[in-house]
Specification:
With 144 residues, this protein is mainly alpha-helical.
Length: 144
């Protein structure tokens, strides 16, 4: 009664391949930036996290908002602004006054370009509101 004589392979169908979800290291960028090398390392990790987030956009809910808020955190909190030229401690506290090599400039410009591309892609996917429009303008101007 339990024995079937025949093939049941036609009942199986195609196998369902589960999606591979990798953890996105968004919280690992809380570092202080004191030199150009630190700056490049933070920007590279941010671009890697943004690319990983972009590849997993099907599995991550609200990925456009997540990308935009991550870039806002990166540009607003982590990347230091140069001090004013009349600041009394500019020579000791601001690493932007130090000389920079051409290769470092190229790397930083390439990384800023990649961050800007991710930001534009995510900012265009956001719903239009006063808060989002203000954030778009401020973050884009800080990247440029």
């Amino acid at each position: 009664r339990l024995l079937r004589e025949g093939s049941t392979d036609h009942l199986a169908g195609d196998p369902v391949v589960p999606r591979l979800v990798l953890p996105i290291p968004l919280a690992e960028l809380n570092e202080s930036i004191d030199s150009y090398d630190d700056f490049i390392a933070v920007m590279r990790r941010a671009v890697d996290a943004l690319q990983l987030l972009d590849r997993q956009q099907v599995t991550v809910a609200h990925f456009a908002q997540l990308k935009a808020s991550f870039i806002a955190h990166l540009m607003g909190r982590l990347v230091p602004l140069p001090l004013h030229k009349s600041h009394p401690h500019k020579a000791t506290r601001c690493f932007f006054t130090r000389p920079i090599k051409y290769e470092v400039q190229q790397q930083l410009l390439r990384l800023f370009e990649q961050v800007m591309r991710h930001f534009v892609a995510s900012a265009c996917a956001l719903r239009s509101s006063r808060e989002n429009d203000g954030a778009r303008i401020i973050i884009a101007s800080s990247i440029l």
